[in-house]
């Protein structure tokens, strides 16, 4: 048997996905979730994508499967609902194991302080935090089975605004992402001994529908404020997720990893 000290350190061995890798990407029909799902499919994984809209989910799955060499399976579900999370679990159970869970489903909301909706707090904390916990809780036995087969990973999609403060009045969204970051660390402590790594990505601006729906500035203006002078691309987020899912990321857990083009190091103006 090859010892850990003498295992191959070539790129494919370090960063490639094991044959038969099974992945679940929530919110995988569009935006960042679709970018992530594409990266896994293009590297040979079987990827389940979940989305509230069945038509969008089916279309994305067909597109990604045609792209190959992996396959993409549509699993429509409203993941803000507890029972829907359990239904997703029942479908994934047919695989016998889950190697990677990407918790990407999320919602944003912005309104002035005096008008900020009480219902928005319930909606965002439920989908962005509570149901992430529900899915991890439900899928832990399958992730443990994946870990015994070589890979068990949870990747949470957080935000730079769970760490830094935005001028936009998105109080509930920012609080939910900060909660997600901390919950990821807590889960890493509990699941690490079971062989399951848990990490959270603190994302900056990517050109998605969620961003354009809340823009006060143009995309060019936003990019000008990023040290790398551009928004995130599919390769940025997919590459980070593939690293965390691979042997190269096997000793990384409990981390909050910025994927933001350096946005969080930009000094903020004084009020």
Automatic annotation (TrEMBL):
Record keyword Cytoplasm present: no
Pfam family, any one: adh_short_C2
Signal peptide annotation: none
InterPro entries: NAD(P)-bd_dom_sf, SDR_fam, Sec_Metab_Biosynth_SDR
Keyword annotations of the record: NADP, Oxidoreductase
MF-aspect GO terms: oxidoreductase activity
Keyword NADP annotated: yes
Domain of life assignment: Eukaryota
Family stated for the protein in its record: Belongs to the short-chain dehydrogenases/reductases (SDR) family.
Designated name of the protein: NAD(P)-binding protein
Organism: Cutaneotrichosporon spelunceum
């Amino acid at each position: 048997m090859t010892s850990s000290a003498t295992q191959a350190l070539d790129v494919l061995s370090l960063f490639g996905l094991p044959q038969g890798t099974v992945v679940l990407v929530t919110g995988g029909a569009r935006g960042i979730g679709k970018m992530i799902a594409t990266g896994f499919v293009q590297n040979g994984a079987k990827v389940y994508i979940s989305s509230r809209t069945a038509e969008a989910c089916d279309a994305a799955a067909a597109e990604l499967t045609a792209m190959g060499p992996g396959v993409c399976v549509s699993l429509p579900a409203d993941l803000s609902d507890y029972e829907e999370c359990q239904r997703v679990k029942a479908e994934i159970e047919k695989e016998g194991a889950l190697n990677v869970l990407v918790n990407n489903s999320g919602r944003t909301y912005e309104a002035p302080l005096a008008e900020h909706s009480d219902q928005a707090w319930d909606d965002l904390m439920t989908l962005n935090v509570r149901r992430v916990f529900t899915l991890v809780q439900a899928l832990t036995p399958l992730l443990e089975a994946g870990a015994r087969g070589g890979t068990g990973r949870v990747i949470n999609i957080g935000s730079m605004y769970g760490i830094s403060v935005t001028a936009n009045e998105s109080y509930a969204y920012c609080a939910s992402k900060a909660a997600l970051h901390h919950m990821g660390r807590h889960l890493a402590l509990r699941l690490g001994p079971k062989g399951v790594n848990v990490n959270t990505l603190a994302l900056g601006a990517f050109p998605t529908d969620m961003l354009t729906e809340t823009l006060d500035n143009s995309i060019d203006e936003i990019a000008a404020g990023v040290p790398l002078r551009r928004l995130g691309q599919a390769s940025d987020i997919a590459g980070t997720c593939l690293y965390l899912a691979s042997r190269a990321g096997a000793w990384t857990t409990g981390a909050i990893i910025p994927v933001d083009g350096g946005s969080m190091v930009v000094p903020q103006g004084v009020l």
